[in-house]
Structure formats: C-alpha cells, structure tokens
Design the sequence.
C-alpha cells in the first residue's frame, strides 16, 4: 500500500505459523505479538527499548519489539520464545538455563534466550567478549548474571554436541 | 496435637534423603522457560477494559477543577473516575504510623508529581491514554518542600495540614547507658552519610485486574503481588468491604523485591470496574509510572553515626541518628524500613549499648516503599564504613577491628542491645574463610604495588548480619501491630497415593515451589515428580503471608513439615488399626508406617490412604476418611515490644563476609570492581543453587546501589530520572562475577536449621564496595560517604582535596 | 506508554518519500531504525501527524568501499557496519565507534543515517563523521546535495538539512597513511551515551613528529566539537605526554558551555573531556607509530 493510512492489515509468520490481523498503525510489535497473536511469552518491561524483556527475532535478528511498530514487521519472519521448544522437549538453550539456574522470576528470560539464539545462530563458538556484548543489552534484576553466563557456556556445549 | 518440627535434615523420617540440601532443577522452570507461566498482563478476561491513570504534573498543588466531559465522548471510553469517586467510595490508605495516608485518587490537593488524579477505563490502553489527554484539570500550585532537613523545621510548607507538621515521627530509643559509654570512651568517631533514593525495579512492573461484583459488593482481584492476604486486607480497609468479600489471586510475578504490595492501582481499577457495571478492569503500570509513581523509591536517608571505642578497638557504644525522607505519604509502607534496623542494629558486633534517634518526615516526593533488605542495607553500609574510619584512626587493619568486636560462638543465642535475638553464628570463621579465599595478604601487596605506580586500588572487608524470618513486631516502633506471621499449607494424599500441597503464594523467583517439593519428596520418600503444588487464592488457602523479610524458605519448610507430621500421625493411627496394634507401636520411615522393632510389618502410605478413601470397611471406628492435614507455621518465642521498641522479632541471623578489590581512576572518578569474594552462612542450605542465586542477585542490586542507581528530584519536586536512560540498572558489564564459599552454622530454632537468605547480599554489597572505594582514596584523605559513588561525585571529592 | 495516533506511510521510492515530507513539512517524521523516535512516541513526547517509514525504499542500505572511501547508505543498519569485513579490516575507527553504540539489539535496528540525522551530541556516529571529515548526501525536492561534516551539525538534535530532505548516504574517507586513531569515552554503563568522549587521529611525519591531528569532543556540547585551536598545537611537535596534556587542556578550556545533567555537571564534563583527549592522543600516536 502506498497510501497514508491509520489502519492496516498486518501479516507475519511467527515460529512458522502465519498470523494476520487488522491493526491501528500505532500498534507496537510487542503488543501485536502478545495481544493480537496471543503469544504472551514475550514480555514488556520498559516500553522504551532498554531492558530487553521484549527481545524477539525479526528475520533472524534480535530487535526490541516494544520500539517497533507491527506494520514494520508486516510480511516478516518472527521468532519468539514459544518457538524454541519442540513440544515438551526443551531447546538446548532452555535446558541449559534450567540446569545452571540461569533464571529466578523468569520474566527477562525469554528475551535473554532469543538474544542468545541469534548469537549462536551467527556464531556457534563466541568468545566471552562476544557473549558479554550480546548479554549487555538485556537486563536481569534477579540473577546477577553469573548463572546466565554459565547457562550460555553450557548451551554452547550442548549445541556443539548435537552437531 | 503438638507438632515438633525437625531442626535438622537428619531428623526427617528418611534414612537417605535425596533432595533437601541438593541442587535440583526447579519445578517452576519448564513453564517459565517456554513462556507459559501466566503473568498478570498475560491474563485476558471476557469484557475486560483497560485502565490508564492521569497523574499530577505538580508536586504540591490544590486541585481547582476536573472536567472529564470531552474524555467521556471519546469512542471506546467506558468509565472515568476522579477524586470525587474516591472520596465517596473508598477510605484513605491505612498507614503506619496512622493518619498519613490519602485516597487513591487525589481529592483536594496533590502531594507529589505522579500522584493519581483521574483514571479512565476504555477498550484498550491506547484509547485510555488518548482519553486522559482530553481531561482538563486546573491546579493552583502550592509551595514545594523537597528538602528533608527543611521539612522537619517549623514553618515549612505542610504536606498534611491537619497534622501541623511534616514530622511523622521523632523519637530517640535508648538501650543501656549510652551517654556513659561515650563519656568514658578513649575515642569517639562520628561520621555523616547520605544514602540517596533508589529502589526495587523488578523487570515486571505492578499490575492487576479488578472485578467488582455489583450484586453483592465484593471484589475479585488478580494481581502481581507478593502477599495476597496482606493485599486483600488492605483492599477491604480501603474499599470498605468485609474481609471475606475480597478475593485476591496472586499471579506469578516477575520479581518484586518488596514493593508489590497494592499501592493504589487495584483500588482505582476497582472503582472503574464498579462504574463499568462490574466489567473487569486491567491496569498495568508502565515503567515510567513505576519509576515516578509506583513502589520503586526507597531509603532517602541522612545518617549520623557515632562509635565509642577503647584504645584497643573495642566498641563500647553505638549512636545512630537517622533522618528518613519518606516522601509525600506513608501509604507504601516505607516506614517499616526505618524500624527494621532494630533487628540487627549492632551488626556482628557485641556492642553492649546503643541509641537510635529516628526522625521520619514527609516531603513532596513519591512515597517511599520497602526494598530488599528493608532498612539494614543502608544501616550496615553506614556502620561498616564507620568501623573502617575507626580502624584507620587506631591504625588497625579492618579485619582486626572487626575480629576484636565479634559476638563469639558461645554467646549465642545472643540478645543484642536493640532487643532482637541472634540465633547462631561463627563470625570469625567467616572472616578467616574470606581472608583465605581472597588471599587478603596478596591483595594488600597488590594495593601497595599499585600505589607505587600511581594507581588507587582499594579493599573492602566487611561483614554483616542478614536478618531472616520477619515478624510484625520488628516494625512496632512505627505503629505496626501484632506478632506472628502464620504460613500454612494443606497436604493431601489421594486414593492413588499421589501427594498434593496447597499453599497461598505464587511464583516470585525464589524457587519456593521447588523447595516444598524437595521437602515433601524426602519426607514421604517419593520422587519430585510425585508432588504437585497447588496454588490457592486468598480465600481458599490456609493462613499465609508469602515471601517477604527473608522468611518464606524457613516458614514454608516449617509449614510443610508440620502438616506432614500431622498427616503422618493420622496415617499411622489408621495403619495401627489396619495392622491391629496400638498407635504408639507405629513409626513412619522411608514412606512406610511400620511396627517398631518389626520392620517387615509395614504398610506404604499409599496403601493407608487407599484404605482411608476406598475401604471404609477396614477403618477403625470414628476415623475420618480424610488423608489431609493443614498446619500453619509461625516463629516461636516472639515477644511484644517494650517501651524502647525491644523485642525478639526476626528469628534468624544469617551472616556474611565480603572482600572486594576495586580500582578508582582518580582522573575520572570511575570505579572498577576487580575481584569479589563472598563467604555466607545461612545455616542449613535447603537448596544451595537457590541461595547462590539470592546472593549473586543481591550483589547486582548492591553494586547498583553503590555505583549507579539514584532517583533525582529538582527543587520543584520534578523527577529528573524518569526513564531507564537515567535510572541505571546494572548490566552484565557492571556486575562482578563473584567467588563464593558457604559456611553452615545451623539455627537451633528453625525447621531443618535453615536461616532466611532471600534478601541476601543486598545487605552487604553496598557496604563492601563503599569501604573499598574509601580504602582506595584514603591516601588522599578523602571520605566518600554518599551513594551512589558516581564518577562525578568521586571526582568532585578528589578535586576538593587537590585544592 | 502507548503512542498517540498518527498516519503511516511506507513509500517505495525516494521521490515519494521526499514528496510526502514536502507536503507535511514539520508535521511528518522519518522512521528509520526507530531507536530514538519510537521511545519518544511511546512517551508521547513526539506527536507527528505522519510517520514516513523509509524501509521499503530500495538501494539505501549499502555498505561498500569506493576508492578508499566507505560509502554507507542512510538506511544501512549499524549492525551491518559491525559485521562488514570491509569495515572491520579497512576502517577500524568506524568499527570501534559502532561497537560503542548501545547494544547489538539496538544496532540491528538502528540506522547509520538515522543516528547521524538525529544528531545527538553524545552519540558516536556524529562524532565519527566530524573526525573523519565525512560527507553527507541529502536528497530533497531540489535533488541531491553534499554537506560536509563541518557544516552538518547546527545544534542539539538539529542538522542543516531542510525539513524535506533525507540523508541517503554517508561517505567516510579512510584515514591517511601514517595515521593512528583512538576513541576514548566514559559512560556510566557499557553502551550508554558518553558523559564525555573524544575521537582523535594523529598523522606522523617521516621524522616522527606530528604532521597533523584531529580532536573531536562529543557529549560535551550541543554538537560534536572540533577542537581546532587545540589541534593546531600538534603540528610539527615531537609527541610527548606533556604535549598531549597541553593540547587536551586547551581543548577542554575552549569548551563553551559543557552540558550539565543528572549524570555529570558541566565542570566535570569539561575535566573529563580533557582526560579523554589526553588519553586519545596518546593512543592515536602510539597506533600511528606502528
């Protein structure tokens, strides 16, 4: 559509399933995912792009979905936390978080795991500096990060073992 | 029946406990990790509306008029509430001390920027916010008072005219012959400190759905709250409802750290629900609302602390003068943080006499709320820094002066000057372990080499008490009533022998469901997966409080063990009948009711419960077929306060010793944490990974407090730090990885000997980092006594000595 | 924190975008990466009538080298700079500056053009284009024009572009031979805006003296600031700690009115700028010597 508009039909493929709905153009991407698509695993922590609770993958890249509009993601591939596990089988990143006690309240965790999954998709063997760089964009108030770092290292080993 | 809760793991009816004390995967995790756990904003109810709250742009002003007519016309708006509704339909918030609360929507005047004035319920939050912009409110500005010192003076603008003063409370508590101790002292060290506002900031803000029942005038409230029963009581008081006409459902919540207690939002949403014909109204606090208008600001404090010392470093007296700026009202219960220091007033030290000169004032800032640790984190921070000042004055190593003053192991249980009792502790052992782990001598050598190179390295060596298992009497001096915080569970075993435990709190992050699962799995000798935890709301659950004051691990263990014991007693009675012997011949071990001395004559508990529920023909006459038991645990031996506020309040005294190495760049004032060592002792560690998590999480918040976090108000009461761009939470870059070692000095008084540990290192890290900074800067003669120790602040101090 | 109502357009050509901007003048805002604009919208501090999303316009996101100049499209994501082998190997100052921008999650969305056009004086990319004498290509109703970095930044969040112009390309020349660079900044946390920062480049002559130097201060004024008088002190001098201190002191003293906010007073920023300048000159010189 080339015209100026206040409403639009938006479609996106989230974790392999197509979702579409009519939205006000001012609807944020995180609200579209949570409310229009009912995928509430992605959380809202600040609505100004700092805390990372809303981090999802947009065409494979981590983005802060609270400062994106749903219309910007029209036609895109989105990955959220709901797409990590296969049924009851946890993704290695999730398994690692559980085993290393990388979560306490769990509210920030989906955002962390999506950031980690972008990082490991790009580079299965990141350095400590690269891990820190990616984790640096996510805030956790519960864990103090040490267990999260261990969880990342564990996830790397698990995913390497899987091949 | 009198219940005896086991004081150690060895006393459990299990010859080989597999779970308690072990690091097990948390039962909460799979749902959290897959995004399935339902937080408040994930819940959608039929007919639900969304609330947006219009807040005061002024810090002190009369409300002249409120015109909602344009907003009412906006499509999608269903109802609007103003102060008029609040005055008609609600009571002012209860506070301690009494009389410093207001209605949930401002009625005659506003007292802080961000104070709720109007609220809209609409079909979406977007529309509700649009509607707010159409509401016309006229204010008449009043004189603003934001300086706590000035607020205490006569003639300053009054926040509550009816009180005639801004001083909520002013009292001096004297414990022993304090004047004498200071008069006789060889040295008196007096220092001033400033702890600036900071606060909890869980990743999930507050939120609720209020649903008013228009037929019977009752309330159902779903909310992100710590203590559903406490919140329910508060709603009953504010909304004028009988206490059994409020049902609170506590959703799993994304952290709390003290503040999720029910501050205005639920009551505003309840008014809107009532005005909307009973439709549920959801209010989700956004982050700016949290920072400027929520339960996120704590500890705005001016300290003056004095130590009386002998030449050999023995501390003979302690004076603490505190001016606590609680913000505009006492509605958020920040006042309890001024009382809690009594629970551990003297820290680890056997200081025989002490005095607490406490002044609490109101100012035109956000009402202060509780934050992790309540009052002790700033108190410990001031005390530990003063110990270091004393050590420097006497030429003593900071470890030496502490060692000199420790309460000794044989002195426990030890009643401190302010009245509370410490259960147990080995402070010297903790200090020695920390010195060894950190290679303290080598650190001092590293520091000396650094000084030669012109680098300013500093070592902080501190130890603190981390009080656990709160009781209400800890806050009696600010007007909180009562003793006892019952926490209850109901354990039931079904006809198939599967175990359910019903309790009255939801997830907050401390892994308490896992803890209960561990306890019961070992008690009944089953697998973790054989236990099901069932959450019950405030009207359904046995008496409960939930997490808070580092109590829940201990309390819920006590409740589980108590209920298990009662249930097992019942099962053994039934088993005795079934095995045709006397009750006193039956014992319970490894999941079996068995005849004493005849281990082969036994029945598995599942057989017993199966008989109870499905074979009434086999039951002894009069035996009720109910394999279920309820028990509420509360700390024994609590006492009412005396006229100086003394009481046995917090049941346990965990302790820790931190050693920190920092470097201060004196050209920029920036502090880097280089090494961090922790020895902590919280008695029996029921789940070691949970404890480690509490510790490291406390370190992160402590580092934030020491270096980064601060709410800044200008002279007009405007909040300058209103987003996460300016209120700075530490990231992985700012939080040090720490090396930890655990000591275990069990409590003689608690279930399984565990001590409260949930507030963790927050008690200690601010002190550790600050002492390290002062150690680094001491060659320059600098005293850094204000947090956060930002680069600008330290640089300014450094410039002052250069000139 | 939900945005107010606005109209949205996603033009498929530069011409369409320029036309929309012209029609709506000051009531329209460009949406590029959104990292600065969207928070303002969520806070209702920005209230444009129309949001013009540039993402569908082709050929605006290139990152390539053209005869020693790094040519970057206005809509190139900051992450593209970070991940580009050309940038990593041949424009290390650009790489270093990019890696200090916020966090990867922001850089995936944030654009090079967006950051430069937003002109936050504490941001790294505006300082970078000043330090490298980069050129900006602005396209408006009257066509394309080239604006030098010197002429680009006017004041706080304001550039010399017209309301109807779009920043379509940035051209960053490579550093001259025998030139070392350094970027020094102090932020409260990793990834935050700098309290004060300096980008310095130093070119050495054959005899080891300094031929010329560039000192750009950021985070301390309403725009990135070229410390021209201080820079002149470098020419022909033998590198030394004393020289760097003197030059840094001049750069610091010459600051007109450093910004003051809750994180840093004007006085502190001034001093910090001097410290960063001194350290940047030392590191740039050391790099030039290799």
Sequence:
């Amino acid at each position: 559509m080339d015209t100026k508009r206040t409403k639009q039909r938006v479609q996106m493929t989230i974790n392999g399933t197509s979702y579409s709905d009519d939205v006000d153009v001012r609807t944020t991407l995180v609200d579209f995912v949570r409310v229009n698509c009912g995928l509430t695993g992605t959380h809202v922590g600040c609505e100004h792009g700092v805390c990372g609770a809303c981090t999802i993958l947009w065409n494979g890249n981590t983005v802060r979905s609270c400062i994106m509009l749903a219309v910007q993601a029209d036609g895109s591939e989105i990955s959220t936390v709901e797409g990590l596990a296969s049924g009851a089988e946890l993704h290695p990143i999730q398994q690692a978080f559980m085993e290393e006690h990388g979560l306490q309240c769990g509210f920030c965790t989906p955002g962390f795991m999506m950031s980690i999954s972008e990082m490991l998709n790009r580079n299965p063997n990141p350095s400590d500096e690269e891990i820190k760089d990616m984790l640096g964009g996510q805030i956790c108030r519960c864990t103090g990060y040490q267990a999260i770092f261990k969880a990342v290292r564990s996830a790397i080993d698990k995913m390497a073992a899987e091949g | 029946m009198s219940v005896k809760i086991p004081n150690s793991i060895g006393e459990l009816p299990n010859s080989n406990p597999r779970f308690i004390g072990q690091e097990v995967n948390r039962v909460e995790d799979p749902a959290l990790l897959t995004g399935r756990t339902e937080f408040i904003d994930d819940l959608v109810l039929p007919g639900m509306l969304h609330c947006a709250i219009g807040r005061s742009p002024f810090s002190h002003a009369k409300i002249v008029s409120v015109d909602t007519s344009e907003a009412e016309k906006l499509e999608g708006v269903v109802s609007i509430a103003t102060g008029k509704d609040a005055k008609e339909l609600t009571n002012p918030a209860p506070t301690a001390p009494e009389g410093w609360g207001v209605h949930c929507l401002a009625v005659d005047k506003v007292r802080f920027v961000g104070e709720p004035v109007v609220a809209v319920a609409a079909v979406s939050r977007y529309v509700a916010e649009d509607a707010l912009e159409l509401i016309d409110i006229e204010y008449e500005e009043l004189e603003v008072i934001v300086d706590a010192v000035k607020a205490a003076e006569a003639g300053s603008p009054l926040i509550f005219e009816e009180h005639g003063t801004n001083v909520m409370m002013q009292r001096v508590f004297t414990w022993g012959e304090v004047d004498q101790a200071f008069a006789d002292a060889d040295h008196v060290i007096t220092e001033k400190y400033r702890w600036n506002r900071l606060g909890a900031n869980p990743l999930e803000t507050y939120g609720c759905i209020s649903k008013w029942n228009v037929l019977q005038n009752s309330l159902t409230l779903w909310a992100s709250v710590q203590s559903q029963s406490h919140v329910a009581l508060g709603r009953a008081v504010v909304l004028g409802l009988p206490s059994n006409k409020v049902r609170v459902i506590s959703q799993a919540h994304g952290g709390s750290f003290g503040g999720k207690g029910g501050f205005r939002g639920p009551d505003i949403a309840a008014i809107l629900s009532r005005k909307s014909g009973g439709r549920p109204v959801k209010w989700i606090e956004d982050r700016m609302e949290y920072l400027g208008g929520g339960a996120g600001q704590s500890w705005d404090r001016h300290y003056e602390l004095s130590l009386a010392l002998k030449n050999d470093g023995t501390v003979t007296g302690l004076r603490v003068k505190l001016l606590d700026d609680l913000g505009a009202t006492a509605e958020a219960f920040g006042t309890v943080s001024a009382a809690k220091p009594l629970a551990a007033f003297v820290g680890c030290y056997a200081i025989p006499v002490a005095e607490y000169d406490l002044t609490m004032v109101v100012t035109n800032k956000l009402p202060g709320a509780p934050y992790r640790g309540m009052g002790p984190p700033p108190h410990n921070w001031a005390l530990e820094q003063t110990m270091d000042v004393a050590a420097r004055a006497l030429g003593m190593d900071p470890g030496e002066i502490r060692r000199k003053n420790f309460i000794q192991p044989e002195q426990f249980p030890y009643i401190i000057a302010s009245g509370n009792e410490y259960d147990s502790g080995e402070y010297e052992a903790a200090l020695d372990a920390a010195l060894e782990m950190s290679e303290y001598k080598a650190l001092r050598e590293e520091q000396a080499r650094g000084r030669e190179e012109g680098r300013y390295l500093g070592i902080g060596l501190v130890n603190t008490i981390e009080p656990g298992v709160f009781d209400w009497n800890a806050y009696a001096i600010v007007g909180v009533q009562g003793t006892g915080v019952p926490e209850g569970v109901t354990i039931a075993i079904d006809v198939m022998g599967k175990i359910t435990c019903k309790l009255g709190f939801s997830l907050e992050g401390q892994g308490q469901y896992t803890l209960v699962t561990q306890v019961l799995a070992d008690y009944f000798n089953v697998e973790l997966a054989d236990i099901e935890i069932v959450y019950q709301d405030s009207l359904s659950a046995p008496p409960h409080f939930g997490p808070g004051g580092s109590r829940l691990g201990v309390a819920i263990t006590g409740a589980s063990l108590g209920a298990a014991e009662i249930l097992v007693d019942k099962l053994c009675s039934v088993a005795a009948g079934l095995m045709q012997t006397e009750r006193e011949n039956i014992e319970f071990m490894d999941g079996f009711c068995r005849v004493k001395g005849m281990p082969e004559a036994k029945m598995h508990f599942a057989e017993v419960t199966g008989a109870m529920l499905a074979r009434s023909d086999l039951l002894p006459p009069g035996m009720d077929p109910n394999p279920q038991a309820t028990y509420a645990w509360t700390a024994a031996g609590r006492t009412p306060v005396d006229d100086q506020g003394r009481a046995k309040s917090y049941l346990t005294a965990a302790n820790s010793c931190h050693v920190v190495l920092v470097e201060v760049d004196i050209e920029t004032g920036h502090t880097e944490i280089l090494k961090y060592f922790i020895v902590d002792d919280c008695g029996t560690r029921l789940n070691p990974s949970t404890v480690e998590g509490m510790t490291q999480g406390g370190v992160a918040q402590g580092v934030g407090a020491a270096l980064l976090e601060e709410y800044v108000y200008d002279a007009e009461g405007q909040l300058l730090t209103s987003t996460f761009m300016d209120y700075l939470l530490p990231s992985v870059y700012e939080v040090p990885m720490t090396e930890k070692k655990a000591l275990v000095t069990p409590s003689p008084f608690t279930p399984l000997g565990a001590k409260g540990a949930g507030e963790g290192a927050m008690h200690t890290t601010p002190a550790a980092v600050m002492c390290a900074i002062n150690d680094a800067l001491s060659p320059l003669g600098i005293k850094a006594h204000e947090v956060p120790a930002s680069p600008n602040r330290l640089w300014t101090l450094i410039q002052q000595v250069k000139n | 924190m939900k945005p107010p109502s606005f109209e949205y357009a996603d033009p498929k050509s530069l011409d369409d975008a320029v036309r929309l901007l012209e029609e709506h003048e000051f009531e329209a805002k460009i949406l590029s990466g959104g990292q600065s604009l969207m928070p303002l919208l969520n806070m209702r501090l920005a209230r444009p009538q129309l949001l013009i999303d540039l993402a569908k316009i082709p050929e605006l996101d290139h990152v390539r080298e053209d005869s020693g100049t790094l040519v970057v499209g206005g809509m190139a994501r900051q992450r593209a700079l970070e991940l580009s082998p050309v940038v990593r190997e041949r424009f290390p100052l650009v790489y270093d500056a990019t890696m200090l921008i916020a966090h990867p999650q922001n850089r995936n969305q944030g654009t090079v053009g967006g950051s430069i056009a937003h002109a936050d004086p504490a941001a790294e990319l505006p300082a970078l284009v000043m330090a490298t004498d980069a050129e900006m290509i602005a396209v408006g109703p009257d066509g394309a024009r080239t604006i030098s970095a010197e002429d680009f930044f006017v004041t706080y969040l304001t550039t010399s572009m017209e309301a109807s112009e779009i920043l379509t390309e940035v051209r960053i020349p490579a550093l001259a031979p025998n030139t070392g660079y350094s970027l020094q900044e102090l932020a409260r946390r990793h990834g935050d805006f700098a309290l004060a920062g300096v980008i310095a480049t130093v070119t050495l002559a054959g005899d080891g003296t300094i031929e010329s130097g560039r000192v750009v201060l950021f985070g301390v004024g309403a725009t990135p600031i070229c410390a021209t008088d201080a820079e002149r002190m470098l020419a022909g001098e033998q590198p030394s700690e004393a020289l760097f201190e003197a030059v840094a002191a001049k750069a610091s003293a010459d600051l007109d009115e450093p910004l003051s906010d809750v994180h840093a007073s004007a006085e502190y920023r001034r001093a910090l700028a001097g410290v960063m300048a001194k350290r940047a000159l030392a590191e740039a010189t050391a790099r030039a010597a290799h």
